DNA sequence: AGGTATAGTAAA
DNA sequence: TTACTATACCTG
């Protein structure tokens, strides 16, 4: 690593894990001693490493796959270190069974990234590896099995004449084609007869051979670039100047300010140099539209990577990244681990989106690890958002990131006007104020579209007994069950349990059960009563469950003409609604008084993102925010000053209350059928952590959702002003935890930089 | 994780 | 007694 580069890395991730220094320090004593072993990373969720003997007849280098015995089974692992002094005695070591690769499947830089991730998130290396390596490579077949093959004539094939195929026109055709040049597998399969090929190979006239995947060849722009605004041009210049060095940028630009065009114009100069570009998106749903814009622009291969790919497609993308034949890869979280041959730039769109952090198992944040990767690769990284996270804004404030701002909408049109609708003075009709309904009518009459945002799917959040007030609850969670009218079920949105709608009250036996509260399914029904002539499109997880449903609903919305569009937060995620001129935010009051310190930030982002859907076409937009609390500081701030100013004051508040991003945090979670066991275990963790008084504790506390799927849930928060302090303590406490018998009786996990405090 | 030895328990 | 299931334990 170059000194300049290392400095920058520590800039963003200033910490030193105890494990890292243990692992990476070369042990010269071991080199001299007779017994040395190799350390292998194995796909098991264990926080230890495993060492093996390398039989003298075998040779292996770091980063190659090996097959090893493990208990009573065999596993494929990756050589992580050579010549280590084993941490168990010589007799306990088993020999490596086979070496699979001659050249590493994981390059050094990627191994460094994975080691870093395992240390930083205090997660077993084996599971980190599992997240990074395509499933097919974990099966242990040689790489050659997956590389493309081509066909050519053998010497005897070259010696024969066309006349020898007089009885088979198909064979003649293929043979003749091969006399001029070798043909790759795909060409032969698509243009020639399979049986002819088989016969020619049986006669040993044709043979197959392995080919290399060649780096891409850039053939220029496929469509002209758009004219940039002054702001956009500045942003492009700034990032271009950072080519070849690690430098993080934050691109803050309101919806419609042309962030994507900035991304697109950063790419050609890198393609000229043969470098690769990684574009990370928070959700699969955003890949199609992004793929379309990128592949339309460049005559170079643009690939996608996400969890819906088959194992084969995944490996293919992985190999193309490794060989340099992929120019641009557009992908979700785990694309971050692709083995690029020469990465020139990382772009993260919607960097504020919580989906960028994995919510189970290995809980990494793709944005944060991407910054680390950019540092290792010595390339710039650009984070884009209309509503940047407080983390990134703080990094700008601290001088770690360079902030680039796009102030105006690229089309020159005005930002939508935001108006609060005070519900206290109003008689509501189906949850809508008279004022909202009147303005909806007005826009629909003009042939415009109206969008309604309601972040609650289903028909109603619960059913209630009219006689005794009993509410339908989930048997296994401390939560009500949502009534879904269409599927005639009560569904628990926390554990997924469903049951038929009861005829009688569970408390008093009354049959007078009625829905309480309103979800999207109910609002849809009411809208078609209020506006019988207007088509309604509902976008939520239920209406888009069917394969292809999402795309067809989006297509519906792209049609001009009056339409009501209603949906959940799905509406906030980067899709274009060209004919929407009015957005009605039906009810977000629940989020105004949440206990989660991140709730205001998330609400601010959500409101701004939803509001941004108004007036992206030619018409000026308007946003109506219905609320019982029009005087609430957050709403006032957002309405009067916009997101940027709101975020500044929110960040100031975090500073004053000593919360992230101004402090570093980690969270222990515990889950068990017996509540006391969780509390007891977390108390043990808390007690141990008291040895470091500079790390503040909060808890053990019951989680906001006390019981989920039959298990009680507790958490313990840890906060520290300095990252190294916190991480050293975590390493120590984890070593301790593995010795406790209680640790095996409950399910526990550690969440570093936890975002979701549920 | 996943395989296995072992303890616990219901039927025959 | 056997047959099956829940649980503790271990992996180099
Ligand atoms: Zn439930
Ligand atoms: Zn009742």
TrEMBL record:
Residues involved in Zn(2+) 1 binding: 465, 468, 505, 508
Cofactor(s), names only, from the UniProt record: Zn(2+)
Keywords: ATP-binding, DNA replication, DNA-binding, Helicase, Hydrolase, Isomerase, Metal-binding, Nucleotide-binding, Primosome, Zinc
Top-level lineage group: Bacteria
Keyword Nucleotide-binding belongs to the record: yes
Its job: Initiates the restart of stalled replication forks, which reloads the replicative helicase on sites other than the origin of replication. Recognizes and binds to abandoned replication forks and remodels them to uncover a helicase loading site. Promotes assembly of the primosome at these replication forks.
The protein's assembly and partners: Component of the replication restart primosome.
HAMAP family in the record: PriA (MF_00983)
Protein name: Replication restart protein PriA
Organism: Alishewanella aestuarii B11
């Amino acid at each position: 690593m170059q000194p300049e580069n290392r400095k920058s890395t520590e800039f963003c991730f200033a910490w030193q894990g105890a494990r890292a220094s243990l692992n990476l320090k070369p042990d010269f004593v071991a080199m001299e001693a007779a017994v040395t072993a190799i350390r292998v990373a194995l796909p098991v969720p264990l926080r230890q490493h495993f060492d093996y003997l390398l039989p003298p007849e075998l040779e292996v280098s770091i980063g190659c796959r090996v097959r090893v015995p493990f208990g009573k089974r065999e596993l494929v692992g990756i050589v992580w270190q050579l010549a280590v002094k084993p941490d168990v005695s010589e007799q306990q070591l088993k020999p490596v069974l086979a070496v699979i690769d001659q050249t590493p499947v994981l390059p050094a830089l990627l191994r460094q990234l994975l080691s870093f991730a395992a240390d930083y998130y205090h997660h077993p290396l084996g599971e980190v590896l599992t997240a990074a390596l395509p499933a097919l490579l974990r099966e242990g077949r040689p790489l050659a099995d997956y590389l493309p093959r081509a066909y050519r004539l053998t010497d005897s094939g070259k010696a024969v004449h066309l006349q020898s195929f007089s009885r088979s026109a198909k064979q003649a055709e293929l043979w003749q084609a091969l006399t001029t040049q070798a043909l790759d597998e795909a060409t032969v399969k698509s243009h020639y007869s399979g049986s002819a090929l088989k016969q020619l190979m049986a006669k040993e006239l044709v043979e197959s051979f392995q080919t290399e995947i060649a780096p891409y060849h850039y053939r220029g722009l496929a469509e002209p670039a758009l004219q940039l605004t002054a702001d956009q041009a500045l942003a492009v210049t700034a990032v271009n100047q950072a080519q070849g060095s690690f430098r993080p940028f934050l691109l803050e630009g309101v919806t419609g300010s042309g962030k994507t065009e900035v991304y697109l114009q950063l790419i050609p100069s890198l393609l000229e140099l043969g470098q690769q570009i990684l574009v990370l998106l928070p959700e699969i749903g955003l890949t199609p539209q992004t793929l379309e814009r990128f592949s339309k622009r460049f005559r170079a291969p643009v690939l996608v990577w996400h969890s819906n790919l088959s194992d084969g497609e995944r490996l293919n993308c992985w190999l193309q990244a490794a060989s340099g034949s992929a120019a641009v890869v557009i992908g979700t979280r785990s694309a971050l681990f692709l083995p690029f041959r020469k990465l020139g730039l990382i772009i993260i769109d919607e960097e504020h989106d919580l989906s960028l952090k994995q919510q189970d198992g290995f809980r990494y944040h793709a944005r944060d690890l991407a910054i680390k990767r950019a540092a290792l690769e010595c390339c710039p990284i650009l984070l884009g958002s209309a509503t940047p996270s407080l983390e990134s804004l703080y990094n700008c404030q601290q001088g770690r990131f360079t902030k680039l701002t796009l102030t105006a909408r690229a089309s020159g049109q005005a930002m939508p006007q935001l108006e609060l609708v005070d519900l206290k003075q109003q008689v509501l009709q189906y949850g809508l104020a008279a004022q909202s309904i009147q303005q909806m009518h007005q826009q629909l009459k003009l042939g415009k579209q109206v969008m309604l945002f309601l972040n609650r799917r289903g028909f109603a959040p619960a059913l209630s007994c009219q006689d005794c007030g009993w509410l339908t609850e989930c048997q296994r969670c401390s939560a009500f069950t949502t009534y879904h009218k269409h599927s005639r079920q009560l569904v628990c949105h926390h554990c997924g349990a469903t049951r038929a709608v009861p005829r009688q009250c569970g408390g008093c036996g009354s049959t007078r059960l009625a829905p309480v509260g309103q979800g999207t399914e109910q609002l849809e029904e009411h809208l078609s009563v209020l506006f019988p002539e207007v088509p309604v499109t509902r976008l939520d997880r239920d209406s888009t469950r069917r394969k292809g449903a999402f795309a067809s609903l989006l297509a519906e919305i792209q049609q001009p003409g009056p339409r009501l569009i209603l949906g959940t937060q799905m509406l906030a995620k980067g899709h274009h609604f060209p004919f929407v001129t009015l957005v009605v935010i039906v009810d977000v009051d629940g989020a105004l008084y949440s206990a989660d310190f991140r709730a205001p930030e998330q609400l601010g982002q959500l409101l701004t993102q939803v509001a941004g859907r108004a007036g992206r076409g030619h018409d000026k937009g308007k946003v109506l925010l219905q609320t019982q609390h029009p005087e609430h500081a957050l709403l006032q701030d957002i309405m009067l000053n916009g997101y940027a100013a709101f975020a500044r004051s929110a960040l100031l508040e975090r500073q004053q209350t000593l919360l992230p991003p101004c402090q570093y945090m980690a969270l222990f979670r515990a889950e068990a059928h017996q509540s006391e066991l969780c509390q007891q275990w977390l108390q043990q963790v808390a007690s141990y952590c008291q040895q470091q008084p500079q790390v503040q504790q909060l808890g053990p506390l019951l989680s906001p959702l006390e019981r989920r799927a039959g298990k009680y849930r507790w958490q313990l928060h840890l906060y520290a002003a300095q990252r190294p302090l916190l991480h050293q303590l975590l390493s120590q406490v984890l070593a301790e935890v593995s010795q406790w018998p209680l640790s095996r009786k409950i399910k526990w996990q550690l969440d570093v930089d936890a975002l979701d405090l549920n």
